[in-house]
Amino acid sequence: MPERIAITNATGRQAASLARSAAAVGYHISAHIYSFKYSPLVASEISALPNTIVHTGALDSPQIQEALFKDADIAFINTTSFDKELETGKACADVAKKAGVKHVIYSSMPDHGDAPEAKQKGWHGLPHYRHKWEVEKYIQTIAIPATFVYTGIYYNNFTSLPFPLFCLREVPWEEVETWEGNWQDDWTEEKDGQKVKGRKCGFEWQAPWAPDVRLPWLDTEHDFGPAVLQIFVDGPQRWAGKRFRIPLAFDLLSPSAVCAAFSKALNRPVRYVEGPIEIKVPIPEGYQEQLEALQDLFGGDKVKGKNAPYWWDGIFDSAASDIDREDQGLDFDVRLSRKMWEGWRDMEGYARDIFPVEERLNGKNWMDEA
């Protein structure tokens, strides 16, 4: 009989990717969806997957938790800051254990305030990550086979809409021509003996990271599900106990390299600017605190940040014994992810094939130019 997998917050990018992958290979799915109101397309898609039961409501409801984990063999738990994350994460783990779940994968993130170098370097945790870290530590105490996955930065965060941190601002060609350097030369065409602009716009990404610092990335919708499914297939005998933390990142790129990948994929100038996070639209107060803390922790010299690494070195040493560790730090993290899922998509592929589609769905038409 196929295994039953319980999945929390199934309309989120991580969980939806896992649900699609699991359904495709015959798993039975017990999916939690907060509401069909907020993500109606994804919610409808998940509910229509074969062999899927949907439980709708707040994840902090004991009734929802009990129904979700009933008869589940394995479980993926990803809590959000809107879930009363600390209490809900602990409760889900307790209910999963009581229900007899044989392997839990929890989507965690580090608290840099707990890093060995934290005191010396002035590192601190991020508000949205601290509770995940605390839930992880709690799960380690309750004697349930558990693995903790840490995702890199989502490719899918990028948008030309004016959202903070990952906005690729659409730049009119007249402004591109004012950029320092020869940005416009490769996109200028000859027409009737005169040079004319070859594109109506370029893009600019402003963020607090130093331009050359390497960051871990993944296409969440394309690659998260298959990788996590492989962890479940391998089972807790391989990925629990002493090997309990796994990085999920398939590309290792600096902000400048990200922009180069977008530029090549979109055939237009794309540049990176190290600078403060710009807030141009209303955002929740809690997210404002997250962004301020992120800029201070990860930011480069131009924003007077602490230049902390996205994941501190050694956080995944528990997984290092599983493969020959030829690399250090992020190089090892990415190599481990690629070993688990070889069909990963790189940043250039995402920028070429997926980003324009998402932009059109957001009402943009820059891709329609001749």
UniProtKB/TrEMBL annotation:
Pfam families: NmrA (PF05368). Keywords: NADP. InterPro entries: NAD(P)-bd_dom_sf, NmrA-like, NmrA-like_oxidored. Gene3D superfamilies: NAD(P)-binding Rossmann-like Domain, UDP-galactose 4-epimerase, domain 1. One of its GO terms (cellular component) is nucleus. Residues 3-351 form the NmrA-like domain. Belongs to the NmrA-type oxidoreductase family. This is NmrA-like domain-containing protein.
